[in-house]
Amino acid sequence: MNDSAYNRVLTASRALKELADRPLKFMEVCGTHTVSIYRSGLRTLFPSNVSLVSGPGCPVCVTAQDEIDTVVRLAGMEKVAIATYGDMIRVPGSSLSLAQARALGASIHVVLSAAGALDLARRLPDMTVIFAGVGFETTAPATAAVVLEANRYGQDNFLVLNFHKTVPVVLETLAMDPALALDGFLLPGHVSTILGLSPYAPLAAEYGLACVVAGFEPEQIMAGLVLLALQNREGHFSVQSAYPQAVRPEGNKRAKALLEAVFEPADAKWRGLGLLPGSGLKFRPPYSHFDARIRLGLVDFPAPEPAGCRCGDVLTGRIHPSECPLFGCPCTPEEPVGPCMVSSEGSCAAVYRYGRSEFR
């Protein structure tokens, strides 16, 4: 952070202190925000009556335990290759992680995008390549584009195990939770570049919560928090953007059109929250033959969370990562018990790497 940015952060810190005339509790939804906040030490600049809790903004972390087990089970099938993002590899399943399955001979490939999974299917014509599609509205349009391409060229050995989830519904679920008692949301920048601002409107209009989209640099995050505090001071709640260089009010129309063409709303399972109606995506009928669940007749089997792991409570802002009894021993980024310690966007991993001094 250069001197100019540091001065803006300090100015925002003073403004936040002046505006917070009562205890305020905000949730940062995005895992990238969480990492930036801890890495830059921003929490040390918050006034004592402003608290920030982490939300379900890590797509790998919110993937349910039984869904992880389904991917691991598929990896053990003959003539099946799994393509997935790197963070998914080390998430512990009930018996194995994908990394352990690969060590035992399973065909598991790390890709950087959905397009990489389709390329793999072209290179392995004798294999069924299954892309474990995780992510929110940020990555789902890329999956949609790849499915359209696979459909155009008849790439029948390419399937998607669809774990995509959508953000607005889960935020409404958290907004209704009296135990959380939130005063506002620091909304995710990446997701909002796709969605725009209007999908969050019910959070302000129906639940009386301040909502601000922010970028990921420390001064951008602090500017967002100042706007959240200002809305609470004035008692007028709306959806604002402190990230105009990336987020347009209408969002990305082309990406939204891709989502609409390929997917429709569906119920989805979230770690820590269970089944949330309308919080996921499923393929529309013309593309359902790319759905691995349908083509392979897959059924998820109930799976408990790892013993002692409270990742679900971390993802829903109920506890700070340090309150999990496994945090730091035995659960570390090198030997994770739950996904919040695995993912580069996981709250537990962020606190372990950058924030442990806060609670020593």
Characterize the structure shown.
This protein has 360 residues and is of the alpha/beta class. The protein has 3 domains: 3-58 and 167-237, 3-Layer(aba) Sandwich (Rossmann fold), CATH 3.40.50.11750; 60-166 and 251-295, Rossmann fold; 311-355, no CATH class. Helix content is 39%, strand content 16%. The chain has 16 helices and 11 strands. It has helices at 3-19, 31-40, 59-62, 65-75, 86-89, 98-103, 114-123, 140-152, 167-175, 189-195, 201-205, 218-234, 253-262, 292-296, 311-315, 347-355; strands at 24-28, 50-54, 80-84, 107-110, 128-133, 158-162, 184-187, 210-213, 239-241, 263-270, 274-283. Strands 2-1-7-8-9 form a 5-stranded parallel beta sheet. It has a 4-stranded parallel beta sheet with strand order 4-3-5-6, with helices on both faces. Helix 1 (3-19) packs parallel to helix 12 and helix 2 (31-40) runs parallel beside helix 16 (347-355). The longest helix is centred in the N-terminal third of the chain and has 17 residues, at 3-19. The model has no long low-confidence stretch (mean pLDDT 95).
Can you identify the CATH superfamily of the largest domain? Answer: HypD, alpha/beta domain 2
Q: The CATH topology of the largest domain, please?
A: Rossmann fold
What are the segments in which pLDDT stays under 50 over at least 5 consecutive residues?
Answer: none
Q: Under the CATH scheme, which class of the largest domain? A: Alpha Beta
Question: What's the helix count?
Answer: 16
Give the percentage of residues in beta strands. 15-25%
**CATH architecture label of the largest domain:** 3-Layer(aba) Sandwich
Per DSSP E runs of 2 or more residues, the count of β-strands stands at 11
Give the overall silhouette: globular
Q: Helical proportion? A: 25-40%
N-to-C series of helices and strands = HEHEHHEHHEHEHEHEHHEHEHEEHHH
> Order of strands across the widest beta sheet?
2-1-7-8-9
Distance between the termini: 25 Å
Oligomer: single chain
Structural class: alpha/beta
Strand count, sense and closure of the main sheet?
Answer: 5 strands, parallel
Radius of gyration: 21 Å
Tell me, rounded to a whole number, the average pLDDT.
95
Number of domains: 3
